[in-house]
Q: What sequence folds into this?
């Protein structure tokens, strides 16, 4: 299979240290051309550093990588000619207008003045930025800024695009817009390396995922494989009256394991294999006369994936509320 | 999954989606721009910033006016006996000083730029490596020219008379801007080495203040103590002032001008590659 579809990214043993910190500690990646590859991990896991090395912004301390066949150190210019980068802090010039940003990029990529203007106009329209085109980017909302950032990355269609946390901090609507753009880009043949903190984002977009923690790839697979390795989703139930929670807990415990009382006195949650099972549980609650304000079935969160894969929470500095509760109780 | 996303209906492809698809369909990659074209594009970027925030020009308009007025009328009577004579002496010096002070801002601007994500994008483009820096300095040269023009116009209005007329003034302006371009590379290097714009500003002015004052900008060095005079005589800024005065008066020698051009070239030869190296290798 890899014979027919050569790899867009092949990285072996990439290492980058900053002082004492091994930000990236031997990362191997193999990304098929034409796919979306997700790199999933918490803040500080080494995702951005990995991208920066692959985009030729940082020189690896050890290891090597080829991007679309070009060595990232020896043929950095050739790599720059085929990739584009969308950074975590939107890589657009805040002191220029949206339109000026796109024209600037078009000119720097070699378009003539008229061509750059026409391309900017086309992108502004496609990304719903026409009204804002003449405003300084400083005044853009997060979603607009992100869209402009992606537009700037495709002024000339790249063969490979690095997307570093494209939806962090966006509202659901803007997030869906960004996802739609990514899907269209892939349909048009661009390979995408997507860094994200969100499992559902990787799930929505990626064909393959590497989970990265403390500079190392700790798991790899398709989204389905990863979720299966973690287990199930979680049913969250919110009651109309918190006084009914003990009763609700009893009802749920009959059929399911691991019922958890949340810090909200009217809420509880339970790991739940699939939607059917969850629907049954909700029906049982209702039969028992428990009044439900709302419920939802969530995918395993990144925290749960992490906990399952590494045995430690994704963000050590931010333990879950229940952990604090338990510690306080113990004290 | 039974999450909210499935409840949003999938609309039929709209005009917007069609536009998106069209915009995303492959745009062929043109040949990369020439070094000059890339640098000029970055110069254009600098000009756009000025257009959006014209207040940035205060340091190249109001400050030179202040310098001319202050030094002429504060020191003129005491140093030269008359403000008119002193203006004739000091104007080329103030021209040099004002423009050289402005070069520090090139370093500050670069340092500020680095804190923004857009630099990553520039660095990931297949363009001539020094283009962002050369372009920024070309843009700054326009600022230097503006400052110089303000000073000369004000000076003439106050009674300054260049012996060599307009060609002399243009020659002096060109020489000062050329020197400033060379000196800017020193400050862009500092701008890449230090961590905050404030630090760059402090370091920059700590260097440029004594260098400018310990020159022949304000006084004839003949009156100075020997050691100080020795320093003033080798100070490149003194040579720049001498050459500028000469050009404006019509008495400049090729040697005087040659030294200045050589220093500017040397500064560029050393600090431009250093700046480019630091810019590229910065994580």
A:
């Amino acid at each position: 299979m890899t014979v027919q579809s050569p790899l867009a990214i092949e990285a072996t043993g990439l290492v980058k240290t900053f002082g004492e910190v091994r930000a990236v500690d031997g990362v191997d990646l193999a990304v098929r051309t034409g796919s979306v590859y997700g790199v999933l991990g918490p803040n500080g896991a080494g995702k951005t550093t990995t991208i920066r090395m692959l985009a030729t912004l940082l020189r690896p301390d050890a290891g090597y990588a080829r991007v679309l066949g070009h060595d990232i150190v020896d043929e950095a210019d050739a790599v720059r000619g085929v990739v584009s980068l969308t950074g975590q802090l939107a890589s657009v010039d805040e002191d220029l207008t949206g339109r000026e940003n796109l024209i600037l990029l078009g000119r720097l990529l070699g378009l003539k003045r008229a061509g750059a203007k026409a391309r900017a106009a086309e992108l502004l329209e496609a990304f719903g930025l026409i009204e804002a085109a003449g405003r300084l980017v400083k005044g853009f909302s997060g979603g607009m800024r992100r869209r402009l950032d992606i537009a700037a990355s495709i002024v000339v269609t790249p063969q490979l695009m690095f997307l570093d946390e494209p939806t962090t901090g966006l509202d659901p609507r803007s997030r869906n817009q960004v996802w739609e753009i990514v899907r269209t880009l892939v349909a048009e043949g661009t390979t995408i390396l997507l860094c994200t903190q969100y499992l559902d984002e990787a799930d929505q977009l990626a064909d393959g995922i590497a989970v990265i923690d403390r500079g190392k790839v700790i798991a790899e697979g398709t989204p389905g494989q990863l979720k299966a390795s973690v287990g199930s989703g979680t049913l969250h139930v919110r009651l109309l009256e918190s006084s009914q929670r003990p009763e609700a807990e009893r009802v749920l415990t009959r059929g399911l394991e691991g019922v958890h009382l949340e810090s909200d006195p009217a809420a509880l949650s339970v790991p739940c294999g699939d939607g059917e099972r969850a629907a049954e549980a909700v029906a049982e609650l209702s039969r028992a006369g428990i009044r439900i304000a709302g419920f939802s079935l969530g995918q395993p969160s990144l925290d749960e994936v992490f906990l399952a894969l590494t045995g430690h929470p994704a963000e050590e500095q931010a333990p879950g509320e229940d952990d604090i509760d338990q510690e306080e109780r113990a004290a | 999954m039974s999450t909210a996303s499935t409840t949003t209906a999938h609309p039929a492809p709209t005009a917007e989606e069609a536009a998106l698809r069209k915009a995303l369909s492959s745009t062929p990659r043109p040949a990369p721009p020439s070094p000059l074209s890339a640098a000029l594009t970055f110069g254009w970027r600098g000009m756009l910033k000025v257009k959006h925030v014209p207040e940035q020009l205060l340091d190249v308009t109001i400050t030179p006016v202040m310098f001319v007025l202050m030094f002429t009328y504060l020191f003129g009577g005491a140093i030269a006996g008359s403000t008119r004579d002193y203006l004739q002496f000091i104007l080329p010096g103030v021209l040099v000083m004002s423009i050289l002070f402005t070069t520090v801002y090139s370093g500050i601007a670069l340092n500020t730029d680095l804190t923004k994500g857009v630099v990553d994008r520039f660095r990931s483009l297949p363009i001539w490596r020094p283009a962002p820096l050369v372009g920024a300095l070309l843009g700054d040269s326009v600022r230097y020219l503006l400052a110089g023009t303000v000073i000369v116009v004000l000076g003439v209005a106050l009674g300054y008379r260049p012996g060599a007329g307009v060609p002399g003034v243009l020659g002096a302006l060109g020489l000062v801007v050329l020197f400033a371009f060379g000196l800017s590379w020193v400050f862009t290097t500092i701008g890449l080495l230090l961590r905050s714009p404030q630090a760059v500003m402090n370091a920059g002015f700590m260097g440029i203040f004594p260098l400018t004052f310990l020159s022949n900008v304000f006084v004839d060095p003949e009156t100075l103590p020997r050691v100080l005079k020795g320093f003033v005589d080798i100070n490149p800024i003194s040579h720049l002032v001498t050459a500028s005065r000469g050009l404006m008066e019509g008495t400049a020698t090729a040697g005087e001008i040659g030294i200045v051009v050589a220093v500017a070239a040397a500064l560029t030869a050393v600090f431009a590659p250093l700046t480019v190296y630091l810019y590229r290798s910065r994580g």
User: Anything to note?
Assistant: The longest helix of chain A spans residues 172-187.
